[in-house]
Write a structure and sequence with these properties.
This protein is of the alpha+beta class and 288 residues long. It has a domain of 93 residues: MutL, C-terminal domain, regulatory subdomain (Ribosomal Protein S8, Chain: A, domain 1), CATH 3.30.1370. It is built from 10 helices and 8 strands. It has a 5-stranded antiparallel β-sheet with strand order 1-2-3-4-8. It has a 3-stranded antiparallel β-sheet with strand order 5-7-6. A hairpin with a 4-residue loop joins β6 and β7. α5 crosses α7.
Length: 288
């Protein structure tokens, strides 16, 4: 058992390779030729416009030898993809980090990082969810989960059965940083939340916890199902999909993933990142 635990812990930061293999197999490489492209040549004016458009596009790509300096590049305004053009990509050596260095963010949800021999695509919400869960577990095992008091306590309306269910776990939830009290026959009031969660959806958190607790036998202590409870809390305290991150925030998340056990999977068992090797990417473009 000790050997198995050690092996799992050693491999805990890695994602399953089957996901990357499935992603690569799903990619269809096709050569699309515009009708008449071989027979016709754009007029001079059109060629000039195309050349100008290409030069403008080329000028926005950092790290190209013939491109303008970073200070001359206008910030990217596209809300779907954000690229940090203020810092050259060559600043940081990707070989120093297993998950590479952040190169951009796609759809305000996925972090794209360059590794020594490929690329890594990270689901920022799934990855941060795992990190928050592991922080809560570590805090609980040490000195307890720090709480933050709410300036205005929040009332959550529930049916009477749910109120009785969650209040029966009052002391155990307090150990996890969630302090609640009864507030009449059909509601509770939340006075403190785990500090690790930051600003969170308290209504959604309580509703999800009630669902978790309803599936537990009353004789089972929350500590025996601590992973499930922490996962529920972490889901509400994570960086959400749709949030733009700057380069430092993306790299900080990557660095913490590298040192956090089981960071290759989120609290629900889904992969937090997919790694594509350069050799496989080159095969898609017929370079190998």
């Amino acid at each position: 058992m000790g050997a198995i635990k050690h092996a799992l812990a050693e491999a805990g930061h890695r994602a399953a390779t089957t996901v990357a293999e499935a992603a690569l197999s799903a990619v269809k490489v096709e050569t699309v030729m515009l009708q008449g492209a071989r027979q016709t040549t754009p007029p001079t004016a059109e060629r000039s416009n195309l050349t100008r458009e290409f030069q403008n596009f080329h000028a926005q790509l950092p790290g190209i030898a013939t491109a303008p300096t970073a200070s001359a590049i206008a910030p990217v305004e596209d809300p779907v993809i954000s690229i940090d053009t203020a810092h050259p990509f060559a600043e940081v050596d990707a070989r120093d980090y297993p998950l590479g260095v952040a190169r951009g963010q796609l759809h305000a949800t996925y972090i794209v990082a360059q590794t020594a021999d490929g690329i890594v695509i990270v689901d920022q919400h799934a990855a941060h969810e795992r990190l928050v869960e592991e922080r809560i577990k570590a805090a609980l095992a040490a000195d307890g989960v720090m709480r933050q008091g709410l300036l205005i306590p929040e009332v959550v309306e529930l049916d009477e059965t749910a109120v009785d269910c969650i209040l029966a776990r009052n002391d155990e939830l307090a150990d996890l940083g969630l302090v609640i009290e009864g507030f009449g026959p059909g509601a509770i009031v939340v006075r403190e939340t785990p500090a690790l969660l930051g600003e969170t959806d308290i209504q959604g958190l309580v509703q999800d916890l009630v669902d978790d607790l309803a599936s537990l036998d009353e004789a089972i202590a929350l500590r025996d199902r601590i992973g499930d409870v922490c996962a529920t809390m972490a889901c509400h305290g994570s960086v959400r999909a749709g949030r733009l991150l700057n380069r430092d925030e993306m790299n900080a998340l990557l660095r913490e993933m590298e040192t956090t056990p089981h960071s290759g999977q989120c609290s629900h068992g889904r992969p937090t990142y997919v790694e594509l090797k350069l050799n496989d990417i080159e095969k898609l473009f017929g370079r190998r």
